[in-house]
Write a structure and sequence with these properties.
Helix content is 48%, strand content 10%. It is of the alpha/beta class. The chain has one domain: Uracil-DNA Glycosylase, subunit E. Helix 5 runs parallel beside helix 10. Bound molecules: uracil. Uracil binds next to helix 9.
Length: 275
Amino acid sequence: MPNLRELLHFYAEAGVDTPLEDVPIDRFSQVEVKRAPPAAASSPATEPASTPPERAQTGVASPALAKASVPDDAKIAMARQLAASARSLEELREQLAAFDGCNLKFTAKNLVFADGDPTASIMFVGEAPGREEDLEGVPFIGRSGQLLDRMFAAIGLDRTSVYIANTIPWRPPGNRTPTPLETEICRPFFERQVELANPKLLVALGGPAAKALTNASDGILRLRGKWKSHLTPSGMEIPVMPTLHPAYLLRNAAQKRFAWRDFVSIKMRLRTLTE
Ligand code: URA
């Protein structure tokens, strides 16, 4: 029988690092309740028959479970409709903050919408926030963000001259990969964010961002260093440079030379577009 410390360690390793409720819910007893014959029908019920078991136990409906009954297609359609109706980045942020259709929202501590100058000529896009970003609600402030700041400085940029966002605005629990459904639900918001920011250049940090922006199926090691194009929902084309993610560079320092080449190319293109 593992002790509590080992059990918690096992959960953390498996990505279970955030409680959804203040009070634990015994799902096994709920299954038993469902299976039990409807004897309660003849005796006066203390809870209305439609009260979900989790509400009966905790007094608070789990938002994640409450939304689970909405079909996936409806969540994607709702995301599209909301995103398309946002007329400014501020409105889009408010809509995302109020949107309950993505389960990642219920495990994240904060919405991580953007950092930097939304009117900047260049927009950097990562995949999803990590732990530090989730705690502060600001993208790229952990170790990989600190490396990104140094990469900006190497080509004369900083957080006041760039706009930074992620394809997914909530931290996936335990930093797991977002599921295809989570990605599809967040996509309309992300695409609208790019469209409203309307940068002259985009930089995709890592494979998932490159895929989201260019639809390319190749891996980032093949894609990096070559200019591609992002087509916005309203038909605008924005040049995209796919490059290596700073978290990858922290683990593979020898690859920094490739990122450096990409950043030189970004600097030159930015100069031709802004001078
Ligand atoms: N990695 C990302 O892709 N985005 C962040 O905001 C932080 C780390």
